[in-house]
Target: ABC-2 type transport system permease protein
Amino acid sequence: MVRTYLLLAWTWLRASAQYPGPLIMMVIGSFIVSGLDVAAIWVIFEHVGSLGGFDLAEVMFLYGAAGLSFALSDILFGNVERLSQHIKAGTFDTMLIRPAGAFVQMATDRFSVQRLGRLAQAAVVLAIALPQLGLPAGRAWMIPVMILCGTVIFASIFTLGGAMQFLLTDAPEVANAFTYGGSALTQYPLSVYGNELVKGVTFIVPLAFVNWQPALFVLDRPDPLGLPYWLRFAAPLAAVVLSVAAALAWRAGIRRYRSTGS
Model:
Protein backbone atom coordinates (compact mmCIF):
# COMPACT_ATOMS: atom_id res chain seq x y z
CA MET A 1 0.00 0.00 0.00
CA VAL A 2 2.80 2.43 0.90
CA ARG A 3 4.62 1.74 -2.37
CA THR A 4 1.43 2.29 -4.36
CA TYR A 5 0.75 5.51 -2.48
CA LEU A 6 4.24 6.84 -3.22
CA LEU A 7 4.03 5.91 -6.90
CA LEU A 8 0.65 7.60 -7.38
CA ALA A 9 1.70 10.67 -5.40
CA TRP A 10 4.89 10.95 -7.45
CA THR A 11 2.87 10.74 -10.67
CA TRP A 12 0.69 13.67 -9.63
CA LEU A 13 3.72 15.63 -8.41
CA ARG A 14 5.44 15.23 -11.76
CA ALA A 15 2.31 16.48 -13.50
CA SER A 16 2.02 19.56 -11.27
CA ALA A 17 5.76 20.27 -11.64
CA GLN A 18 5.17 20.97 -15.33
CA TYR A 19 3.97 24.42 -14.23
CA PRO A 20 6.44 25.41 -11.47
CA GLY A 21 5.58 29.11 -11.44
CA PRO A 22 1.92 28.81 -10.42
CA LEU A 23 2.81 25.99 -8.03
CA ILE A 24 5.37 28.11 -6.19
CA MET A 25 2.93 31.02 -6.01
CA MET A 26 0.25 28.77 -4.51
CA VAL A 27 2.68 27.51 -1.85
CA ILE A 28 3.66 31.07 -0.96
CA GLY A 29 0.01 32.12 -0.92
CA SER A 30 -0.87 29.26 1.40
CA PHE A 31 1.98 30.27 3.72
CA ILE A 32 0.79 33.88 3.85
CA VAL A 33 -2.89 33.04 4.35
CA SER A 34 -2.03 30.63 7.18
CA GLY A 35 0.09 33.36 8.73
CA LEU A 36 -3.02 35.49 9.21
CA ASP A 37 -4.02 33.17 12.06
CA VAL A 38 -0.74 33.95 13.82
CA ALA A 39 -1.30 37.65 13.22
CA ALA A 40 -4.70 37.33 14.91
CA ILE A 41 -3.08 35.72 17.96
CA TRP A 42 -0.51 38.52 18.10
CA VAL A 43 -3.31 41.09 18.05
CA ILE A 44 -5.03 39.31 20.94
CA PHE A 45 -1.85 39.38 23.02
CA GLU A 46 -1.45 43.09 22.36
CA HIS A 47 -4.49 43.52 24.60
CA VAL A 48 -4.19 40.64 27.09
CA GLY A 49 -1.29 39.10 29.01
CA SER A 50 -2.51 35.53 28.68
CA LEU A 51 -5.10 33.48 26.85
CA GLY A 52 -6.89 30.89 28.90
CA GLY A 53 -4.02 31.06 31.41
CA PHE A 54 -1.30 30.50 28.77
CA ASP A 55 1.28 33.04 27.63
CA LEU A 56 2.20 33.86 24.03
CA ALA A 57 5.00 31.28 23.67
CA GLU A 58 2.75 28.52 25.04
CA VAL A 59 -0.12 29.46 22.72
CA MET A 60 2.30 29.53 19.78
CA PHE A 61 3.46 26.06 20.79
CA LEU A 62 -0.13 24.78 20.83
CA TYR A 63 -0.81 26.47 17.50
CA GLY A 64 2.33 25.13 15.83
CA ALA A 65 1.83 21.56 17.03
CA ALA A 66 -1.82 21.45 15.96
CA GLY A 67 -1.04 23.17 12.66
CA LEU A 68 1.77 20.76 11.86
CA SER A 69 -0.41 17.72 12.58
CA PHE A 70 -3.28 19.06 10.50
CA ALA A 71 -1.06 20.08 7.59
CA LEU A 72 0.59 16.65 7.44
CA SER A 73 -2.75 14.85 7.48
CA ASP A 74 -4.20 17.27 4.93
CA ILE A 75 -1.28 16.69 2.53
CA LEU A 76 -1.36 12.92 2.93
CA PHE A 77 -5.09 12.17 3.22
CA GLY A 78 -7.07 15.39 2.84
CA ASN A 79 -8.23 14.51 -0.67
CA VAL A 80 -10.43 11.75 0.77
CA GLU A 81 -12.97 14.44 1.64
CA ARG A 82 -13.59 14.92 -2.10
CA LEU A 83 -15.19 11.47 -2.39
CA SER A 84 -18.69 12.79 -3.08
CA GLN A 85 -17.41 14.64 -6.16
CA HIS A 86 -16.12 11.36 -7.59
CA ILE A 87 -19.33 9.52 -6.70
CA LYS A 88 -21.48 12.14 -8.44
CA ALA A 89 -19.20 12.18 -11.50
CA GLY A 90 -19.02 8.38 -11.65
CA THR A 91 -15.21 8.40 -11.50
CA PHE A 92 -15.18 6.50 -8.21
CA ASP A 93 -16.42 3.43 -10.10
CA THR A 94 -13.25 3.59 -12.18
CA MET A 95 -11.16 3.57 -9.02
CA LEU A 96 -12.90 0.43 -7.79
CA ILE A 97 -11.92 -1.63 -10.82
CA ARG A 98 -8.27 -0.62 -10.76
CA PRO A 99 -5.72 -2.90 -9.06
CA ALA A 100 -4.79 -0.20 -6.52
CA GLY A 101 -6.96 0.29 -3.43
CA ALA A 102 -9.70 2.91 -3.70
CA PHE A 103 -8.57 4.64 -0.50
CA VAL A 104 -5.01 5.09 -1.75
CA GLN A 105 -6.30 6.43 -5.06
CA MET A 106 -8.55 8.91 -3.27
CA ALA A 107 -5.79 10.05 -0.92
CA THR A 108 -3.38 10.72 -3.77
CA ASP A 109 -5.89 12.17 -6.22
CA ARG A 110 -4.42 15.42 -7.59
CA PHE A 111 -1.66 15.19 -4.99
CA SER A 112 0.16 18.52 -4.89
CA VAL A 113 2.78 20.30 -2.80
CA GLN A 114 0.75 23.50 -2.73
CA ARG A 115 -0.36 22.60 0.80
CA LEU A 116 3.27 22.73 1.91
CA GLY A 117 2.72 26.42 2.63
CA ARG A 118 0.53 25.60 5.63
CA LEU A 119 3.01 22.93 6.76
CA ALA A 120 5.98 25.30 6.52
CA GLN A 121 4.13 28.04 8.37
CA ALA A 122 3.23 25.75 11.28
CA ALA A 123 6.80 24.43 11.43
CA VAL A 124 8.19 27.98 11.59
CA VAL A 125 5.81 28.93 14.41
CA LEU A 126 6.76 25.80 16.36
CA ALA A 127 10.47 26.43 15.79
CA ILE A 128 10.12 29.97 17.14
CA ALA A 129 8.08 28.91 20.18
CA LEU A 130 10.19 25.98 21.39
CA PRO A 131 13.40 27.89 22.33
CA GLN A 132 11.32 30.32 24.39
CA LEU A 133 9.85 27.49 26.46
CA GLY A 134 13.14 25.95 27.60
CA LEU A 135 11.69 22.46 27.83
CA PRO A 136 13.66 19.72 29.62
CA ALA A 137 14.37 16.51 27.71
CA GLY A 138 12.22 14.62 30.20
CA ARG A 139 9.17 16.39 28.77
CA ALA A 140 10.25 17.34 25.25
CA TRP A 141 10.14 13.69 24.14
CA MET A 142 6.36 13.97 24.03
CA ILE A 143 6.45 16.52 21.17
CA PRO A 144 7.10 14.11 18.25
CA VAL A 145 4.63 11.65 19.77
CA MET A 146 2.05 14.43 19.97
CA ILE A 147 2.56 15.48 16.35
CA LEU A 148 2.41 11.88 15.09
CA CYS A 149 -0.75 11.10 17.05
CA GLY A 150 -2.32 14.40 16.01
CA THR A 151 -1.63 13.57 12.37
CA VAL A 152 -3.27 10.16 12.75
CA ILE A 153 -6.28 11.67 14.52
CA PHE A 154 -6.86 14.28 11.81
CA ALA A 155 -6.28 11.68 9.07
CA SER A 156 -8.87 9.43 10.74
CA ILE A 157 -11.36 12.30 10.84
CA PHE A 158 -10.74 12.96 7.14
CA THR A 159 -11.40 9.26 6.49
CA LEU A 160 -14.56 9.21 8.59
CA GLY A 161 -15.76 12.28 6.72
CA GLY A 162 -15.12 10.49 3.45
CA ALA A 163 -16.92 7.37 4.66
CA MET A 164 -19.98 9.48 5.52
CA GLN A 165 -20.21 10.47 1.87
CA PHE A 166 -21.05 6.92 0.83
CA LEU A 167 -24.41 7.53 2.49
CA LEU A 168 -24.73 11.30 2.19
CA THR A 169 -23.17 12.75 -0.93
CA ASP A 170 -23.72 16.26 0.49
CA ALA A 171 -21.76 15.42 3.65
CA PRO A 172 -18.49 17.33 2.93
CA GLU A 173 -19.76 20.37 4.83
CA VAL A 174 -20.41 18.22 7.90
CA ALA A 175 -16.99 16.61 7.58
CA ASN A 176 -15.32 20.02 7.24
CA ALA A 177 -16.80 21.04 10.57
CA PHE A 178 -14.67 18.36 12.23
CA THR A 179 -11.53 18.64 10.07
CA TYR A 180 -11.01 22.33 9.34
CA GLY A 181 -13.20 23.26 12.30
CA GLY A 182 -11.17 20.95 14.52
CA SER A 183 -7.97 22.52 13.25
CA ALA A 184 -9.24 25.99 14.16
CA LEU A 185 -10.41 24.82 17.59
CA THR A 186 -7.08 23.24 18.54
CA GLN A 187 -5.09 26.37 17.66
CA TYR A 188 -6.01 27.85 21.04
CA PRO A 189 -5.90 26.53 24.62
CA LEU A 190 -9.03 24.51 25.26
CA SER A 191 -9.37 26.37 28.56
CA VAL A 192 -10.92 29.28 26.61
CA TYR A 193 -13.89 27.07 25.71
CA GLY A 194 -16.76 25.81 27.79
CA ASN A 195 -16.42 22.74 29.99
CA GLU A 196 -18.98 20.73 28.02
CA LEU A 197 -17.23 21.40 24.72
CA VAL A 198 -13.88 20.32 26.16
CA LYS A 199 -15.41 17.08 27.43
CA GLY A 200 -16.93 16.51 23.99
CA VAL A 201 -13.59 16.87 22.20
CA THR A 202 -11.95 14.66 24.82
CA PHE A 203 -14.33 11.72 25.10
CA ILE A 204 -16.38 11.84 21.87
CA VAL A 205 -14.32 13.39 19.05
CA PRO A 206 -10.80 13.18 20.54
CA LEU A 207 -9.43 16.49 19.25
CA ALA A 208 -8.08 17.26 22.72
CA PHE A 209 -5.39 14.63 22.10
CA VAL A 210 -4.08 16.42 19.01
CA ASN A 211 -2.16 18.87 21.18
CA TRP A 212 -3.98 19.92 24.34
CA GLN A 213 -3.59 16.94 26.66
CA PRO A 214 -0.01 16.07 25.56
CA ALA A 215 0.92 19.76 25.78
CA LEU A 216 -0.20 19.91 29.41
CA PHE A 217 2.49 17.32 30.13
CA VAL A 218 5.11 19.04 27.95
CA LEU A 219 4.47 22.42 29.58
CA ASP A 220 4.09 20.90 33.06
CA ARG A 221 0.74 22.58 33.52
CA PRO A 222 -2.27 21.35 35.51
CA ASP A 223 -5.47 20.74 33.61
CA PRO A 224 -7.58 23.89 34.15
CA LEU A 225 -10.70 21.73 33.93
CA GLY A 226 -9.47 19.11 36.40
CA LEU A 227 -9.53 16.12 34.05
CA PRO A 228 -7.48 13.03 35.06
CA TYR A 229 -3.67 13.24 34.75
CA TRP A 230 -3.39 9.99 32.77
CA LEU A 231 -5.16 11.62 29.83
CA ARG A 232 -1.91 13.44 29.04
CA PHE A 233 -0.50 10.10 27.85
CA ALA A 234 -3.62 8.80 26.10
CA ALA A 235 -2.99 10.36 22.66
CA PRO A 236 -1.61 7.09 21.16
CA LEU A 237 -4.66 5.20 22.43
CA ALA A 238 -7.02 7.82 21.02
CA ALA A 239 -5.20 7.73 17.67
CA VAL A 240 -5.37 3.94 17.45
CA VAL A 241 -9.06 3.74 18.42
CA LEU A 242 -10.07 6.48 16.00
CA SER A 243 -8.00 5.07 13.12
CA VAL A 244 -9.56 1.62 13.61
CA ALA A 245 -13.03 3.19 13.63
CA ALA A 246 -12.19 5.13 10.46
CA ALA A 247 -10.88 2.01 8.69
CA LEU A 248 -14.00 0.04 9.62
CA ALA A 249 -16.27 2.88 8.48
CA TRP A 250 -14.46 3.13 5.15
CA ARG A 251 -14.67 -0.63 4.55
CA ALA A 252 -18.36 -0.62 5.45
CA GLY A 253 -18.93 2.23 3.02
CA ILE A 254 -17.13 0.37 0.22
CA ARG A 255 -19.20 -2.78 0.82
CA ARG A 256 -22.49 -0.89 0.73
CA TYR A 257 -21.61 1.44 -2.13
CA ARG A 258 -23.97 1.43 -5.09
CA SER A 259 -22.95 3.13 -8.32
CA THR A 260 -24.85 6.24 -9.36
CA GLY A 261 -24.76 4.97 -12.93
CA SER A 262 -23.13 8.17 -14.18
Notes: DSSP finds 13 helices and no strands in the chain. The radius of gyration is 19 Å. The mean pLDDT is 89.
